[in-house]
Amino acid sequence: MTLALAQPLTVYLTPEAHQYAGQFAAEQATPEKGKQVYLNTLAVLAVQTYLKWINIQTAIQQSDCWNAGSRAIFNLADLVLPNIGKLECRPVLPGEKEFYLPPEVTENRIGYIAVQFESDLNQVQLLGFVSGRKINQFQESISLTEIDSLDTLIDEIDWCKKFVNLRQWFGGIFQAEWQPSELLPGTNMRSVRKATSESEVPSISCGKIINWGSGATQRSIVFMVKVTAKFEEEEEGIDVCVRLYPADESLYLPPDLQLKILDESGISCMEAEARETDDWIQLEFGCKTKEKFTIEMSLGEQVIRENFVV
Question: If we measure between CA atoms, which residue out of 264, 6, 237 comes closest to residue 130?
């Protein structure tokens, strides 16, 4: 869809928005950096206003651009959508045919909204949206002829809700129900039996409690996912370790509990099954950037699936 088909939306900027922008700009070391921060702040506040109109929750104070140290070093205009991810709000100056993508904003973004400024800073136009799935990490700009309607943002948010974005975990963004490993039962007890080697490479572990069955026969299992950054010459990716272990007082997992990894086509490519005396089972594998997969757990007739994207 081209810009001609997208419908720009006018957002008026409040005195409070200019107050924030002026305060943040005054902190910067040079006038050029001050102007950048001023426009970035107004762009983020304009998009926040739009999202309020359509009842999408934001957490602007969790955004990197709201952190004094981050905005002083980087060119950021991010807006956090809780349990979903980060939206980048890029300023477009008068006469520009594209908007610039600093290297620090080409990853871990739901997408990008183009915010058109004119000489009068009392209002801006939201030109449209581009999904982060269309952007590669080496892309330096997006042409205004390539942006889609703002309506596609809703579709992108719906898509994000269906997938757990593992790369966002490194930025401290977690989907609902996922907790850091140290907050889950049994983690410390099992830490001495880690099957993966420790290294200096960044890694993070999160999990959730899954209940199997009901009533007196109900069993609670910890579903843990550990992601470790992987840097290769040709392409970046992550290593994934998936582990299941008892969350209740049971010593062992239910026999015949199955764990599978399904590729994007739904084909099983790895699997493990608990035996009578297994206190944990796990699978380990590597993924490339933007790769999608599903983790399937089953016990008897109950099947639970979680979708992930890197």
Answer: 6
Q: Which residues of 270-297 are buried (b: 16+ CB within 10 A; e: fewer)?
A: eebebeeebbbbbbeeebeeeeebbbbb
**CB under 8 Å to 12, separation ≥6 — which residues?**
122, 123
Give CA–CA dist 303/260, Å, rounded. Answer: 11
- Kindly list the strands in the beta sheet with 85-92, ordered across the sheet, starting from the edge strand earlier in the chain: 9-12, 123-131, 111-117, 85-92, 78-81
Which two three-digit tokens encode residue 153?
A: 């943002």
Full-prediction pTM beyond 0.90?
no
Cβ atoms of 277 and 120 closer than 8 Å: no
Degrees, nearest 5: CA angle 258-189-287: 45
CA distance 84 to 107: 14
Mode of pairing for the β-strands spanning 164-165 and 302-309: parallel
CA distance 88 to 246: 40
**What's the pLDDT tens digit per position in 47-106?**
999 999 999 999 999 999 999 999 999 999 999 998 888 999 999 999 999 999 999 998
CA dihedral for 190, 196, 202, 205, sign (positive or negative): negative
Model confidence pLDDT, tens digit, residues 154-188: 999 998 888 898 988 888 888 878 888 888 876 54
Among 240, 226, 241, 281, which residue's Cα sits nearest to residue 257? Answer: 281
What are the tokens at 195?
């099957």
Average pLDDT over residues 127-138: 89
Distance (Å, whole) CA 283 – CA 241: 6
C-alpha–C-alpha distance, residues 281 and 98, integer Å = 50
